Amino acid sequence: MSRAQCPRCLRPQTHCLCDLIPQLDSHTRVVLLQHPSEVNHALNTARLAALGLTNAELRVGEVFEDLHTLLNPPGYQTRLLFPGEGAQPLQADAAATEKLLLVVPDGTWRKARKLLHLNPLLAQLPRVTLPEGAVSRYRLRKAPGPGALSTVEAIVQALDILEAPASYAPLLRPFEALIEGQIEAMGADTYQRNHVTEPPL
């Protein structure tokens, strides 16, 4: 028998995160395009980000038929938060006359690249990246490389840059609780054995 699920955060009712999810405003609009394989993942951080931001939208799919309309709201300039050739470091632009629409693919690196391949309009967007050196709090997945962040962490860092001096750190509260809950569920011994690495000498 399956456990009762919260319809909002999709966590088991006994581990609902809704009380920790803030409601934060932003001038920047965030559109998250989530690969379907991530929807039922226990660590679905894109959903947490979308729930915590009033000016955010989460879409799930591999091909998005209304992408042209989604990417071109009046009065916005659109950027894709994804590394690649020609990607510019993200920075606040006080002189900008248009607001920013930040498009964030959500999935493994391979699945995110697939979203770009299946949706050529995405691949054509100007790209922006986060500053180097970010350290993830995501202690349950091995990062594919230095600076790799979960989706919610990347969004928090991006908005902290774009909307300074405002802080979007409250978005990380449910994320931290999610991580702690997963560690507790697997047991300290299993976590230490499989996820904690010895610091280099």
TrEMBL record:
UniProt keywords, alphabetically: S-adenosyl-L-methionine, Transferase, tRNA processing
Family: Belongs to the TDD superfamily. DTWD2 family.
Highest taxon in the source lineage: Bacteria
Organism: Pseudomonas helleri
Sequence ranges assigned to domain DTW in this UniProt record: 2-187
EC number: 2.5.1.25
Protein name per the record: tRNA-uridine aminocarboxypropyltransferase
Gene Ontology biological process: tRNA processing
Entry GO MF terms: tRNA-uridine aminocarboxypropyltransferase activity
Keyword Cytoplasm: no
